[in-house]
Amino acid sequence: MPYSPRGISLEGLRQSAAASVYDSGRLFDGGRETAPFGERLLIEMGARHTARENPPAFVEKLDTSDRDWIRETVRTEGDSAPERLHENPEFRNYLAHVAAAWKDFDVRFRKGLVSGNLRKALKAGHAIMVNGGGKKQAYVGTTASPEERFELIDPRLFAHEIPRMVIQTATILLKDWASEWNGRDEWTGPGRELQPPPYLEGPFPANGETWELWFQEIVDAPEAKRWDPRSTMPKNWGVGSRVLHRYPPFFTQPLYLDRMSQIMGHIENCLLRTHPNTPLRDVIILIADYYQVGINAHLFARVNNSLLMAQVNYLLHFAGLRGIAHGALDYYALYKVPADFRAIFVRAVLERNPGLEPR
Questions:
Q1: Does residue 102 contact residue 314 with C-beta atoms inside 8 Å?
Q2: What string of pLDDT tens digits covers the 359 residues of the chain?
Q3: C-alpha closest to that of 330 among 245, 235, 237
Q4: β-strand partners of 175
Q5: Measuring CA to CA, which residue among 108, 79, 21, 297 is closest to residue 197?
Q6: Is 42 helix (H, G, I), strand (E, B) or coil?
Q7: For residue 34, what is the enclosing H or E element?
Q8: What is the pTM of this model?
Q9: Are 318 and 141 in contact (CB under 8 A)?
Q10: DSSP string of 252-294?
Q11: Which stretch of DSSP H or E encloses residue 174?
């Protein structure tokens, strides 16, 4: 069952071949254990991993007309994006910005300079995603409502650095049981661009319930001790027929940036320094953790998912894998506990890289 349209059954996932990889780290063939997963993927990494001094082969020859790569820049692999390439100048501009962001991140990552300078790397990548590094703003994100389309975005500032936003947070809709959807899974009611995918699977909090999404490493950080732990975590709650997500207060963003830096340091160690001693499975899970923490931090006013997915897919390519379509990963990251989100992310990667499926 795919991780995107129509959702995913976590129970089914745990019983699947992908789950046997995720849960046990070992491969099975008809119920018979064949080889440790880590052992097999060490061989894969030895054969396919990118040498530190070189950019990933795909980045070196990056072509914004490549249909396979284009599908890594949009929500679903079935998206008509490749066909829109020649008829939509705004989309062509977006692809050029994504490619430029990949190349900027590539230079920083291969030098091992991302984790120690993550704030600078994120701001530089965001500036490229928004305006291509020039002065003209050309991309404000697909979730911006029509009236916000041309509102200025300052890529030099995180949300917590903007005076009017420092004590605020943001709230988005996760689920509306009363939504109007047509047969093509498209929202037909008002506010169409801001509606979540209809296929998101629960559990969700019921009306009147509030659930925190818990990141223990952030709660345990010394810098977090001055606050009530619950006040630093994202929240999901039910209100009537709707389920809403509230990001952590923007003043807590430094906690999330510090955690992202820690995770990126582990990724750099795996891919740049200790290779090939780290199982690829562990690398994929670290990438999932980096993405989930970053999405919940809501670092910039907009263009967060596009930026983080560009980094995610770069890292997957660096590890010798194909990247993934964005799917509903950003929504799943907002309400799935980390262990369940990791399973969803791993499944997405395995579906795009069938050669890694247990046989």
A1: yes
A2: 333 323 333 333 333 333 333 333 332 223 333 333 333 333 333 334 566 677 666 676 677 777 778 888 887 655 555 555 556 777 778 888 899 999 999 999 999 999 999 999 999 999 999 887 555 556 766 554 444 544 556 777 898 888 776 567 888 888 887 764 443 444 344 444 456 777 788 899 999 999 999 999 999 999 999 999 999 999 999 999 889 999 999 999 999 999 999 999 999 988 887 655 677 888 999 999 999 999 999 999 889 999 999 999 999 998 888 899 998 999 999 999 999 999 999 999 999 888 775 33
A3: 245
A4: 243
A5: 79
A6: helix
A7: strand 32-36
A8: 0.80
A9: no
A10: GHHHHHHHHHHHHHHHHIIIIISTTSS-HHHHHHHHHHHHHHH
A11: strand 171-176
Query: pLDDT (tens digit, 9 = 90+) per residue, 177-197?
Result: 776 444 344 434 444 445 677
Those residues whose C-beta lies under 8 Å from the C-beta of residue 198, and which sit 6 or more positions away, are 179, 181, 185, 187
H-helix or E-strand spanning residue 48: helix 37-48
Nearest 5°: CA angle at 323, between 326 and 358?
Answer: 110
Beta-carbon contacts of residue 160 (< 8 Å; ≥ 6 apart): 166, 250, 251, 252, 253, 254
Structure-block tokens of residue 73: 């820049």
- Count helices and strands in the chain by DSSP H and E runs: 14, 6
The runs of H, that is alpha helices, within 49-150 are 57-60, 67-70, 81-84, 89-110, 118-131
Distance CA 276, CA 43 (A): 8
Structure tokens at 213: 């999404």
Report yes or no: 283 and 271 within 8 Å, Cβ to Cβ: yes
